Amino acid sequence: MKKPVNIVHTSDTHLGDPYGHSASEESLKNVLDAVDSTKSNFLIIVGDVFDNERVSNDSVCFFLDQISRTNVPVIILPGNHDLMHSNSVYKRPIFKNSPQNLYIFQNPNGEEIQFKNFGISFWGKAMEEHSPKFKPLTNISFGNNEFWKIALAHGQFEEEGVNSGRSSLISPQNIKESGCDYVALGHWDSFTDVSQDNIPAYYSGCPTKLSKQKTGMVSLINLDPSIGVSHTRYPLNS
Ligand SMILES: [Mn+2]
Question: Which of 34, 52, 121, 216 has its CA 20 to 30 A from that of 24?
């Protein structure tokens, strides 16, 4: 059932923001290069792929061209900058001609995207509204318990008892109760490990080089039926 799988995990590219994220296009290219050089089987981008819903069609075309550089499935979870609502960038007609390997979560209540050939399932809630009532990592369900279980969630991790009332909160309890082999998080530009008990949970951070780094980075997840799950950080060309 479960096969060995390599996944590249990134988030928060913010395409179409020439001011705050001027290197976003170069960074996405570097991510696609990394998918190739690591011989990965999947690429997951956990929200804020686009900076806003007014981005130019050129930005969207650039994105689709990059996705078409690979044959591996590319799985997108909409975040608070690229919400899945009536004016969503993902609802533009141009997406009707998407590359075959592009998968976008649509359902705000959560859905699964399964790949039987690898014995793996990805679960996520497409954000419709960035609000305190949206909980990105609750009511998870997987149809096949024999598959690798990967959850994607875009939101704000917060320790128990803080009770900030902020939007799209993710709690330690949500991660513990997820029952996942790996929880892929997005929303934060900086890499952060928020693993709980035996459940690995990481913010990959954005793929653009931050001031204190030598290069941009992605998270590389290796799932091996005999060894288990490992997470490493993979430096991008720059
Ligand atoms: Mn965000």
Answer: 121
> Ligand 1 (ion): which residues have CB within 5 A?
48, 79-80, 187
Residue 189 CA to ligand 1 center (angstroms) comes to 9
Instruction: Measure Cα distances from 88 to 83, 84, 154 in Å.
Output: 6, 5, 16
Distance CA 203, CA 199 (A): 13
CA of 70 from ligand 1 middle (Å) equals 25
Tens-digit pLDDT profile for residues 117-174: 999 999 999 999 999 999 999 999 999 999 999 999 999 999 999 999 999 999 999 9
Ligand 1 centre from 4 Cα, in Å?
30
Extract the residue ranges of the chain whose pLDDT is less than 50: none
Of 197, 199, 190, 170, nearest in space to 233 by CA: 190
Q: Quickly count: other Cβ atoms within 10 Å of residue 47's Cβ.
A: 30
